[in-house]
Amino acid sequence: MGSRILLSVLAGEIGARLQGEDIEVSGIAGVDEAVPGQVTFLSNPKYLLRARETKASAVIAKQPISGLGCAFLLTPDPYLAFALAVEQFHPPVRLAAGVSAQASIHPTAVLGKEVHVGPFAVVAEGAVVGDRVTLYPGAYVGKGAVVGEDAVLHPHVTLYEGVRVGKRVLLHAGCVIGSHGFGFAPTPQGYRKIPQVGTVEIGDDVEIGANTTIDRASLGVTRIGPGTKLDNLIQVGHSVEIGRDTVIAAQVGIAGSARVGNRVMIGGQTGLAGHLEVGDGVILGAKTGVAVSLKSDENRAWSGVPAMPHRTWLKMATLLPRLPEIFRRVARLESGKPAEGEE
Amino acid sequence: MGSRILLSVLAGEIGARLQGEDIEVSGIAGVDEAVPGQVTFLSNPKYLLRARETKASAVIAKQPISGLGCAFLLTPDPYLAFALAVEQFHPPVRLAAGVSAQASIHPTAVLGKEVHVGPFAVVAEGAVVGDRVTLYPGAYVGKGAVVGEDAVLHPHVTLYEGVRVGKRVLLHAGCVIGSHGFGFAPTPQGYRKIPQVGTVEIGDDVEIGANTTIDRASLGVTRIGPGTKLDNLIQVGHSVEIGRDTVIAAQVGIAGSARVGNRVMIGGQTGLAGHLEVGDGVILGAKTGVAVSLKSDENRAWSGVPAMPHRTWLKMATLLPRLPEIFRRVARLESGKPAEGEE
Amino acid sequence: MGSRILLSVLAGEIGARLQGEDIEVSGIAGVDEAVPGQVTFLSNPKYLLRARETKASAVIAKQPISGLGCAFLLTPDPYLAFALAVEQFHPPVRLAAGVSAQASIHPTAVLGKEVHVGPFAVVAEGAVVGDRVTLYPGAYVGKGAVVGEDAVLHPHVTLYEGVRVGKRVLLHAGCVIGSHGFGFAPTPQGYRKIPQVGTVEIGDDVEIGANTTIDRASLGVTRIGPGTKLDNLIQVGHSVEIGRDTVIAAQVGIAGSARVGNRVMIGGQTGLAGHLEVGDGVILGAKTGVAVSLKSDENRAWSGVPAMPHRTWLKMATLLPRLPEIFRRVARLESGKPAEGEE
């Protein structure tokens, strides 16, 4: 917060070109909240009008904003430059190495170098925790689970037995990895549980949101590819495979054995049925219901329940409120009367 | 449970008028479950028939129920009177003050008077916990977080670093406040995390349901206004602002930077896209999908995906199953045949 | 993993008939992953083509698969036989009896025989934990709660005060049972909380998924019948009653006072409004919105928002993307022009 930096230096760090006076700035804030002495950014054009009113001393943007007298840090990718600028003012802090006397580390567990283990964290029998890992209070690493270097487990994360988590993985509070898949065989005496004896593997650089749940495979592996980002309260069923650099918004549900490709984008509250495939680069709108496989062809964007091409959905959605009208118009035609208002 | 109270006294406490005999009652229960000696209530007219069969000795209601010979506690607002009556029989209990020897309190943390801190609760560096706060086992108050007077944190609640929670706030088990917003800048090498360095502020008298998640702002503040009530498993994205006395049912998702007004009511499983506004007093039905801003004008109630006026939605919803019929009827018109059954 | 078993013996254990050579096998895997020396299974006919390519030494199936030279374990119910076979190779393991010195057991709590209580688990005042119960680290059994014999509570499970859980119940990490129902009476000064003084009762042999939440009744009891299975991230509102052997997929929401019968099946992300009934044996598709009671008559399967018979929904769903077309066709009819392409 207190750090000050010259705009020319900041420009170098974030890959931007300075236009305007080379003053010192001391922080970064949104267009509405920024005060003199701070930097802001314009990435979403929706905010252009509000950016014109900003009190910031410099704006990270694609091009200078007319009518605004401050300095500009110009770059073709203001959103990425913004990310880098925030890091300049708020460099990531790692908790001090050390294992709390109030933690529970099984004698057979292996802890890497410079780990931070908070109070009431648990590392169970035979688990392996990599170098520089942070286990916040109450984080639980089950029997034989493996946590890669530099991973961070926030409070009350649960890794069930045998789960494997990659390097630099960030697990938010309360997420659960490796719970039992939902599989039961009906019998005359009620349901018989299918033992869930597979596991989960989370690739490097994955981020998983708060209270998200990822079930272990019944046999084999539930897999989340490297670089993939999951938001909060998502459900990933057993034996699901998700590729790399895929982004999934909150409250999405993916049923068992579905396969989701690389660089897929899934909007919030969308649901995928089990045993289907979603191809690389597919984009699913919010609240979509996917019941069949979607290939990665020229039509990439889908919406609706059931999923249809997004453009079709947009047209359909506009007409939906007019369903009563079409029934009236058809009844009129049937009765032989002229169209309403001679339309 | 064991407490007994005269109906006349109870009437005074709950703002009702006694009609009938002034007997002692010893508890309160639903219309079906109540036994002689107990009070029940009729608020939802759907239950009128069942209320007629109640065995209760007194009914809290708007007006006497014909054919029912018991006493009545009459009031224009039976639901509120019911709430007050339950409090009479089940006065709120505060856990005894004291800090468990099995808790973890950082030396720089500040605890108010008469706090209750259960085993395995954590109060991190520089955090401030107000007077009479209850921290159930496993509750986690992060670095520099602030918890207002009389707040209650149930087991496994997580308050990330710097989050601020108002007075009398009730946080249910497993809810997470201050997790990272979901923001990533795409780069040729994969996604780059936008550091999430803002915070969350929860107003006084807010209640937040079990396993609900509220993300911190990337910059600035995610805000929940005073008196607002959130049910279980809700997702609130980064930089969202919710007004006062708003009520949100379970499994709702609110995407980043959305603004929700005062006295809004949102039904379960509804989703709001990011960067939009929902005006004061708006009512959103269950499973609604809101993609654009909704003003607080004469049309207050919305439903459907995408959201349309609730009345329009009702008409549309009735006709939806008849879509095959309209296709048949149009094909018939096109073929020049008379309408089906000469309708 | 290391155990080896003769196919004839395995056949006896799982109620199948061996056809082919009686060799020893050492494990079980999916059709794609199985290697020589392992067993696999074919239950879903979708996987027939892939089963033909399996490298497994034996296949559990209804009938021999043509073109596949391995042994077969034939049974009318391959899925159940598969469940039993997995148990042969992965017999359930119970954690060693014992109470961690790092747990917190109230002096008035009662622990049964051979319980396992992990570090940081809590058994509060007057709670009763049955024989052979497993409490994983961080599991919380609230004041006066009762846990039946052989139940397993995974990490960070929360049982609020007074909740009762049956025998052999399996509770996954982070699930919350007994949180407050969502009930507030509006007043001119804001919402007044309805005290939630009822409880929850979970029948025998119930399984509840990770981070699922079940609210206590305001008065009376929220009830989950024996043998019922709930997946992850489900919301069950206050005073809900769910019958026996019902199966509910992830992210379903059931609003207050709804009643769900026996042997009901509910697809993921479906929502039920409050105060309604869903009859025995009803099947609700994924993402269904149920606003009125659904009887258990000849039409058992429902889908859509609002719910309609599943067959109607299928036809409707096919036509939905063609809504723009029907508007065009009606306009054409109104204008007196011939139908498009003379169709």
Polypeptide structure, described:
Three copies of one chain form a homotrimer. By secondary structure, chain A is α/β, with parallel strands linked by helices. Chain A folds into two domains: 5-89, MurE/MurF, N-terminal domain (Udp-n-acetylmuramoylalanyl-d-glutamate--2,6- Diaminopimelate Ligase, Chain: A, domain 1); 98-315, UDP N-Acetylglucosamine Acyltransferase, domain 1 (3 Solenoid), CATH 2.160.10.10. Chain A has five helices and 39 strands. In chain A, strands 7-10-13-16-19-24-27-30-33-36-38-39 form a twelve-stranded mixed beta sheet, covered by helices on one side. Chain A has a ten-stranded parallel beta sheet with strand order 8-11-14-17-20-25-28-31-34-37, with no helix packed on it. In chain A, β38 and β39 (308-309) form a beta hairpin. The longest helix of chain A has 13 residues, at 323-335. The mean pLDDT of chain A is 95. At the B-C interface, α3 and α5 of B face β21, β22, β39, α4 and α5 of C.
